[in-house]
Write a structure and sequence with these properties.
Blueprint (H helix, E strand, L loop, with lengths): L2 H10 L11 E4 L5 H14 L7 E5 L7 H4 L6 H6 L13 H13 L2 H5 L2 E5 L4 E4 L2 E3 L5 H19 L7 E5 L3 H13 L4 E5 L2 H7 L4 H12 L3
Parallel strand pairs: 2-3, 2-6, 6-7
Antiparallel strand pairs: 1-4, 4-5
Length: 223
């Protein structure tokens, strides 16, 4: 099986069996045939080989990015205009996607980037509470109940031959804290390097955008 086939098989059967706290809604776009078809187009375009990739690990999908398109850090606009994958999803921009695709352009473009890297998240499925994005670590009970799911997901993805020498954590706060402690227990990777979260950059550090783009590219090009 190619890497694309393994990823798509993983996404097709992705579900959370554990009960989530009251009011929490799970975002699972992969259950929608039209969205899953977009994922097929994306992964078949960039991952139809058996080469290893280095993981960039986010928090969990948001409702305007991967929670909508099924493709991590990729909103409908970037999916259509940059990845050249037509879609009829609401053309709403997502801040993290905006930063990531600026960074990918600085790196050398989508083909050069996806040939080396693979985006995932600590929880590959996202969450909302009262219509707003929710992080897995925002509700301690949610994080506790998700641990077996997240464990299975990480082990499955690493079984594809992904790089275990190093991984990048998107987020220098709670996500990095959790992932570092978890990695110490499970020894998924030899090293985890943190990068500022794209949304944090676009919301609070936009004036320094070029500096952050350079930071990302400089660190990623080392691997």
């Amino acid at each position: 099986m190619t890497l694309a086939e393994q990823i798509l098989n993983f996404l097709h059967y992705l579900k959370i069996d554990a009960p989530v706290p009251r009011g929490v809604h799970v975002l699972n776009p992969y259950q929608q045939p039209a969205v899953f078809d977009l994922c097929k187009q994306f992964y078949s375009k960039y991952y139809a080989d058996n080469e290893s990739r280095t993981m960039l690990i986010g928090i969990n999908p948001g409702r305007l990015g991967a929670g909508l398109t099924g493709v991590p850090f990729t909103d409908p606009i970037r999916l259509k205009e940059i990845c050249k994958i037509e879609n009829t999803l609401p053309a709403k921009p997502e801040l993290s996607s905006d930063f990531i695709y600026r960074m990918i352009d600085s790196f050398g473009g989508v083909h050069a980037f996806y040939q080396k890297f693979y985006f995932s998240s600590v929880s590959p499925l996202g969450f909302t509470l009262k219509g707003k994005n929710l992080n897995y670590y925002d509700v301690p009970l949610l994080q506790k109940r998700l641990k077996p799911f997240m464990q299975t997901c990480m082990r499955t993805q690493l079984s594809w031959g992904l790089n275990t020498r190093v991984a990048f954590c998107l987020g220098e706060g709670e996500n990095f804290k959790f992932l570092t402690a978890w990695n110490k227990e499970e020894k998924f990777f030899q090293e985890i390097i943190s990068l500022p979260h794209p949304r944090f950059i676009m919301q609070y550090k936009r004036r320094q955008l070029d500096n952050y783009l350079h930071l990302y590219v400089e660190k990623l090009k080392q691997f």
